[in-house]
Amino acid sequence: AKENGQNYFQFYVASVDREIRERKQLEKDLSGALNNHQFHLVYQPQVNLETRRIIGAEALIRWEHPQRGLIPPDEFIPVAEVNGSIVEIGQWVLDQACWQAARWASDGMPLRIAVNLSAVQLRQDNIVDDIMDTLTRHNIPAGRLELEVTETSFMTNLEDAVEKLKRLHRAGISIAVDDFGTGYSSLTYLKRMPVQHLKIDKQFIRDLLINEEDTRIANTIIDLGKSLNLTVVAEGVETAEQEYYLAQRGCQLAQGYFFSKPLKPREFEKFVASFHSK
Ligand code: C2E
Ligand code: CA
Ligand code: CA
Ligand code: CA
């Protein structure tokens, strides 16, 4: 038994050691990814459940690693947030998404683009000016941009977050609370924040109508949205039953694989055309 314990310990040390090395390597690769053009954006349509029109798209980052292939954002965004490189990456995302929105608008497809804004980005002193400059540079009306922030953004410095989001909102940008219900939700945030959209996290949608608790949570968020006059967006909609339920329950917008997975710009354009011709 003692020998086994020792073996286990050695195995444990070796695996922790490997994890540290892999993380260091990931960080190193990440630092060159932007300059080496390894990032691109994909866009997932947001559908109005009442009119069944696509009213916007969420931009999501993809990293094509030269050796490892596609690395999911859940794996590298947290690393980029810890080492601060999310500031530069996030600015690239915003710039790229605005460029795309401007192109689509000039092609007769004026969609609203939703961009994820990390709490680390929101903490930057010049973030509001940087965002406004980006809109100006691409000649995009502020109403065409939505910023998705998580509840984490409100935690470190509530006053600072309130002040910045108010400035962005006054300029005409809309603000969505992403992953609503999974973080340190507080109704105080909703009261103080200039928020217009609530996104029901996909973990509550996955087992909608199967799990009673999830269904009740989704209902509660929809009702909360109604009473606070916020638009509710359901993410992770994968079935016709979920769409039907959410629509009749009064949820206004939805995105998910049931409509489309996130797509590259060209495919996105084709998807919008075919969806609207149905
Ligand atoms: P998120 O903002 O909550 O984005 C929703 C995630 O759900 C996306 O994963 C999307 O591809 C996925 N999804 C969409 N529809 C469905 C569905 O029907 N079923 C399931 N199971 N999943 C669905 P993705 O693209 O891997 O992104 C993961 C997370 O990485 C995002 O979660 C967001 O927190 C972060 N992220 C992605 N792009 C960016 C970015 O540009 N900036 C920042 N700061 N974070 C980003
Ligand atoms: Ca999001
Ligand atoms: Ca989410
Ligand atoms: Ca998330």
- Distinct ligand kinds: ligand C2E, calcium ion
Order of secondary-structure elements: HEEEHHEHHEHHEHEHHEHEH
Question: Treating each run of at least 4 consecutive H or I residues as one helix, how many helices?
Answer: 12
Task: Give the helix/strand class.
Answer: alpha/beta
> What is the spatial order of strands in the main beta sheet?
1-2-4-5-6-7-8-9
User: Could you tell me the number of beta strands?
Assistant: 9
Strand content: 15-25%
Shape: globular
User: Helical content, roughly?
Assistant: 40-55%
Global mean pLDDT = 94
Distance between the termini: 67 Å
Biggest β-sheet description: 8 strands, mixed, barrel
Q: Note the quaternary state here.
A: single chain
- Please state the CA-atom Rg, rounded to the nearest Å: 20 Å
Poorly predicted runs are: none
Domain EAL: 23-276
Coiled coil: 1-36
Protein name: EAL domain-containing protein
